[in-house]
Amino acid sequence: MSTGSGDDKVLVAGIGNIFLGDDGFGVETVRVLSGRQLPGQVEVLDIGVRGVHLAYQVLDGYGTLVLVDAIARGGEPGTLYVIEHEEHAVQGAEPVPMDGHRMTPDAVLALLGTLSAGTGGQVPRRILVVGCEPASVEERLGLSPAVAEAVPRAVRLIEELLDPGTTGGPGLRSLAPGAPAATGGATEDAAR
Fold this sequence. Notes:
5 helices
């Protein structure tokens, strides 16, 4: 459980369906991460396919949200991505069809924007997605070799992002200056 005020609380949420191969990347990454020593203001949750639960959980007051998920962006399987969403992208998000068991990060963020407007809850100041390029999201248990090898790298990447020593205080370090802009109000860094 995290300690601290809402402004410095960080939620790291693993998203994905473990029955769809590499879609379980986020769940496996937060499983490993939860066994590590993390700053006191960081809470790590295995959300799995419970995207609606995640949206309501975030309304409890977090300054930063880190979503961990498999994300197909056309790279080599096992490629890691860090995507930073801008607040206005959440606030002005278009409504998406609700499917409680197949909510992508975009769908969760759109729901979060709707819920915060309706309840007066606050959207986190900063939202990052740590993603991994999947090899296969076909029906099966277990990660592909390339994605399984990416899990420890993703854990180290998240630990670096969470390291308060790199920012001089609680929260997340900044992304590399000059990271290329991606569409949809996001900044992206890729690591392999």
